[in-house]
Amino acid sequence: MKFVYPEFLWALFSLAIPIIIHLFNFRRYKILYFSSLKFIQRLEQQTRSTQRLKHLLLLALRLLALAALIIAFAQPYKVVENSHSKGGSPVLAIYIDNSFSMTAKGAEGELISEACETARGILVKAAADVRVLLNTNTMGGLEQRLVTKAEALEMIDKIKPIALNRSIDNVLDWQRSFLDREEESGEKLGSRQYLLLSDFQKSTSQFKNIKKDEAGFYYPIQFTPQEKGNLFIDSVWFSTPIHRAGQNSELTVRLVNSGKESMTNAELSFTSGSIRRDVFVDLPAGKQVETVINFTEKQTGYQSATLTVNDKQLFWDDDYYFSWYTDSETKILLINGEDAAPAVSQVYALERFYSVSSINQNEYTANQLKGVDLIFINGMNELPSSLAADLSSFTETGGTLALFPGAKCEFGSWNSLLSDIQMPAITGKFSTGVKIDRLEYDDAFYYGMFEKQKEDLNLPAIKQAYRTSKSGNDNVYELIHLQNGAPLLMRSGGSINAFLFTSALTDDFGSFTDDALFPAIVLRIAEMSQRKAPNALTIGKESVFPLYKKNEGESPIHLKRGKIDFIPMTRTQGQITYISLSGNEALESLTAGTYTIVDEKPEGMLSLNYNRIESITDYLDDNEIIDGLEGCGLENVSYTEVNQGNTLAKIDIEKPKEYWKLFILLGLIFLIGEMLVLKFWK
């Protein structure tokens, strides 16, 4: 039996006080005057032994109650010896969670500071010969070694928050695997104690893959913030991918309030160059809200912006960075077939924004695709296999196809291409029910095209159309519907950008080119063909950023922002170079913000943000943590919570079994026994 506060045991000397009082009461006499002593002598003989027993019993109960109270304050515990110990030095495996969620405010500073101070206090009290395995979420090579107490204290001083989180099963597996390898290599290790210092967020704490362990001692120590709510920016997106100087852009922002209290007039700020917008949003507790910010783009080229929300708890997710490219022109390659419609080139000639190269199908060469945003197939009946292969590869590198077949479409050659780009096959012709019925107004394709939706539009006449098979691809969207339910215009989604018009632009198929809807659709296809990279990436997450205009030199790509100069992983597919920011190296080297992409010279912008997985401030409770660990077969688990200014200076990791509550209970039992004796023993 050991004690956390053995100095309280000095109070056991106070047990002499009730003993002295009782002895004094035994020796104190009171003189009574009676006419005859015969009765008094008889009464004294009958009660002397009974009263002495009663006084001794009261003395014993009071001494036991006081002693139990004193021992309870000294906090006794029993050290359980490790039956599997091989006689080597004891091992203390300490995990300090340094993810961003640990920057929340506790009663004594940030949670990560409290965790570090706790680890220092535990190390100071640890045995002199203890071997320490100290790791954070990095779990890198520098942490994969056993160190002394002094070395561990120096390592704690260098711990900083990083944008990387680990699950509990991942941490324990890493620690135990390393210690097992050390023993296999001949290192003599004694008892193992595992300290888990974390806030135990539900989003990152898992106990699924922990192996059974009857020998080790596990100490989950949970640090709880004073306020558990959090307001953060989850994501942003533009209502349309079209960006042109002088036009309005509509930006949608999704805000999340993960707290249990509603927020009124939360301030959201938008900044892009000289443009600034401030909006105020009401957020119900535990809900997400979307709000819209409108602004006018003033120039072409690469643009960047920052969204900021004012929050009082966690600050790392208050900013959201994103960037985009505003084109100065769109390059179009118009490949004309036998049934080409002159109206197509006439429409694009109306705007200088479009740079059009028009060729006949027999003039096509593969090098004409370089730098092109949109390939418009105008009235071709048969697609040569070489052209179809080039068109398929073109879509894989981010290019856009507009497919308008001729009046005598050869299904086999067309369906080969349509299959490659995941569009429905052409199966025949029909001429009934071909009147245009309606437009799919809700699709982003029509954004800003009409002032308001009209069901009674005077739509152009269609005489014939091509029948297509039912698409099993959910990423195919029908934009114009005929009365018989067949689509007249459809677009693909996902990673492929292609449009298919299921009729021909010849007179025997209708007069579609004579209607105002035709130039609107042709221009919108060109607008949506601008190659768009993601507005932002998440640091460390599996995602890529396409770089369409990389120089052909051998110099590596750099990401630069302030003093940061990082060389990311890249891969080249076709004419596109993809930048990847997955892995721990990116997490350790990069911070959130907008970076300049440098390839011998500046080539673009890339905005990075931290993962929002830890922004949801939902934590496991003590029962979930204990049950999770014990449910995996860990037999020696001792949980502690740190909140409301309660420091861990009192924690001693060598007391998995505490007994102070038992002594409090014994003290109460002895006091109740004393009261019962006084009441009923007359």
Overview of the structural elements:
With 682 residues, this protein is of the alpha/beta class. It folds into four domains: 2-78 and 662-680, no CATH class; 89-228 and 618-654, 3-Layer(aba) Sandwich (Rossmann fold); 231-327 and 533-614, Immunoglobulins (Immunoglobulin-like); 330-527, Class I glutamine amidotransferase (GATase) domain (Rossmann fold, 3-Layer(aba) Sandwich). Helix content is 24%, strand content 31%. The strands form nine sheets. An eight-stranded mixed β-sheet has the order 17-16-18-19-25-24-23-21, with helices on both faces. Strand 30 (569-573) and strand 31 form a beta hairpin. Helix 3 packs antiparallel against helix 4 (149-157) and helix 7 (385-396) packs parallel to helix 8 (411-420). The protein is elongated. The relative contact order is 0.13. The model has no long low-confidence stretch (mean pLDDT 85).
